[in-house]
Here is the input.
Amino acid sequence: MNWSLIISNALYSAIGVNAIGFALAAAGLNVHFGYTGLLNFGQAGFLLIGAYSVAIPVSEWGWNLFATIPVVIVMATVFALLLGIPTLRLRSDYLAIVTIAAAEILRLLVSTPRWTGFTGGTDGINSFTKDFRNSVPFSRDRFFLWKQPLTNYDLWIIIVGWFLVAVAGVFVWALIRSPWGRVLRSIREDEDAARSLGKNVFSYKMISLVIGGVIGAFGGVVLAIGNQTANPITFRTELTFFAYAILVLGGVGKVRGPIIGSIIFWFVISFTEGFLKNATDVGGWKLPGWLVDENNYGFIRFMLVGLGLVLLVVFRPQGIFGNRKEQAFDVK
Amino acid sequence: MSSDPSMLGDVACEPGATKPDPILVADSVRRSFGGLVAVDVDHLEVQRNTITALIGPNGAGKTTFFNLLTGFDEVDTGTWSFDGNPMNKVAPHRTAKLGMVRTFQLTKSLTRMSVLENMRLGAFQQKGERFWAAPFPALWKDEEAANTLRAEALLTRFKMDHMRDEYAGSLSGGQRKLLEMARALMVEPKLIMLDEPMAGVNPALKQSLLDHIRSLKGEGRTVLFVEHDMDMVHEISDWVIVMAEGRIIAEGPPAVIGANQEVIDAYLGAHQNSDLGLRP
Amino acid sequence: MTIRIRHLVAALVTFVALAGALWMPAHADDIIIKVRVQNTPEGGGKKQPVEGVTVTVFDAAGTEIATDVTDAKGVVDLAVPTDGTYTVKLDQDSLPDGIGLREGETGERSVTPTQGLGGNANFNLGAAGPEAKSKLDLLPQALLNGVRFGLVIAIMSVGLSLIYATTGLSNFAHAETVTMGAVVTWTVDDHLRIFHSTTGIQAFLQLGFTALFGIAATATFSGLLETGVWRPMRRRRIGLTSMMIVSIGIAIFVRFFIQFRFGDQPKSYREFSSQKNLSWLPATPRDLFAAGVSLLMLGGVAYMLMRTRTGKAIRAVSDNPELSSSTGINTDRIILFVWVLGGGLAGLSGVLFGLDEQVQWNMGSRLLLLMFAAITLGGLGRPFGALVGSLVVGLMVQLWAWLFSGYADLKNVGALLALILILLVRPQGILGRKERVG
Here is the structure.
């Protein structure tokens, strides 16, 4: 059992590209669900939009990667409007079903072999990161996080990514403490009360959907650039569910929630994987083969996600660090 | 006792009576659920700057009528206007903007927000509630401070100033009623519509609540309220409207209504044991 | 903590015990690629098997894996060791005189066989077959497929809808209940064989017998979740949103547990692995069997809801839980009944869907959105609406595949788009009451 490698791997995961992408996904969900009470189960769709809004213009039309940022914002906004207009006036479970369906439609559309030339089909798009690579400011090409080696490209996307997380966090914080944020929270508590006081609930919900969606889309951008691929398999419904798990873990309705949640989530995921990989490997100390072997250990960490989500919601709805009193979860 | 003969003295005591200066006028407002007609009001006027009570047995359609007037429910047919503005298809938040604010029978306090936050939310047309201004406190700090002062003054008036920082969820039922009424006043409404303001309110508080409602009239506002507590109706209302099975069956000053046989029958038919408290 | 940990533990233990069947290692058989060589005589006529043709299979690196000669039925089985992509080559020199390859035929097939399912390669020689059937000729088949698919979804969604109606919960774990039914049945079927024939009446009996295990497992699982998780959560007045997220957690756990023990490769029931269409209907006996069972079950549920005391109590609880409990209905018992019923129906539908396609870890979650689409189309919380909605969804999916045959992989998109459009114009669903939904 190589503890130092397992732990440095886990530490790297905790600050790595996945942690950043999911922190942004969960930060967007936090705006939707945590502050406005919108049940968006299609966050994966927003991330997909972000990833492909960068990948397609670069690989198809030869755009500069950084020039696609406005496309990301515009496309995520359009998607939010398309989702919101039919559903935001309806009961909240309709939004849940429509968003999950819309995200799945998007994923099927980019997976289909029909438009492989455009979307890359199930292989996705893999050659669009040249401009980002050229922007790497480090002359050294290899760094170490304890035992974990990382390239200058990895380090650069991590720095840019966490900068984006910080920007999103400050932006959300500034919005939520304002009277505007107060209206948002009042909608979460009881939208009829907000209406009776003259607040245009629909428009607030819509703006919330757009903001959370755009933040999520940037999560998709980070995942795509960091993993150097925009691939439909990344954007399955599980992504949204994991983002919810992260949000609940870190604390719903708190700016720090998605960030803490994502760091812990990815540390635990990576640590479990590293541990089980070692414990099922040939040689040395091993777990019994009838229990778990090198072919199926990979599923255990995701079983833990499911179990963890259940236990958190039931026993610690305020997140692992929150206090019971400020529990920001539905109490209706 | 508080009726003002100069305004309502000449008004006929009959359903749909015309008033000298109505703030709210409804015509042929109908709403049915399935086969059941919940509201069927031919004509109704509410006089400006009065306290008008809307009474009737359970299921008479009072709350549904409130919902229709404030845009929380849609009429099947009918028109109504508030302060000269036609109100059909006007969304609830626009109704509030025009100066017609309601409270709810089941209180809608925003449980995970503090009492003070609840109050500030009520303040009307805040710059800081606009998305573009929200991230820049310089644009809304002064306004927020002014709203806070106003909120604190109202809380003091309602004797709730000591709990300004508590979560609304920790208040008792009666306190929530008070908070909801105070919050509605933050909107500066011309017409405030209270749905059972006395339900669940501690008897010790009732008298001061009555005084508050009376003082609203003193400020030039109009009050329309649904209530089951007939002592209260009798004590503060200038005019009483009686609904039964969706229709308006009687109108008049409290003393006249208390003696109206049709009203007594409607109540007795609905629940035999209720004490009307209206009989003179 | 009022949640009953005892029950939670009981639920978990039973879950592990039920799924214990999965613990037993599956047979590590070779994977079989079935090659069939047929010839159409000049001037048309029925295809005939070609005997004595040499066929060879190569792996991706071009290494020869196996070679053999077709039998009297024109069929040869070639065994390959693992999943992967293989190339099957037909030796042209071994063809009988007078039989040659068609124009454009290379004599090669790329095959990707999988464990349990195997693979197929067909060579049709001689005169080209009749012109492809016209679209209209394929319509009855598409309609029939739609009804069949709709019926399977209906069994799943009626349970989901009843649960929603009585508890208000959108249960995301319903999909995994479906998968569990299929997987437990497959595993029991793999180990416990009473009837050995894989066709005919024996096959029905064998599968019917093993399906009982799957249904019992899902019904128990569902019931234990109610007593161990949902009921305590209701008692603690935990909101529906939290419960929905808990159901997602359960779904994730079970989904990956199934992958963990059952593996992620699709498997087929041994029974009815190959079936021919009936002469009078474009459907196989297996399809008829599945549709018949579905209809029977749906009829039973409808009768139960309309005619029995329990059914009336269920409808009362869906209308107003507080009121019905004050009139002496034991709400908790009714809800438990609904969970057990819904779980059992889900298990059954998993078996039927596994017959139709294959048993795989994601078979339920692939259908979850269609289930939600069905119950939303029919009007949330209305079991009969769910039935109608399911048929609409089933037909929509299959008609899309028929109409846009080039885009058949997008057939679910049609149903989901329709869901969104219908919500725009008729938010209460097809059968829903016209009332404010907001």
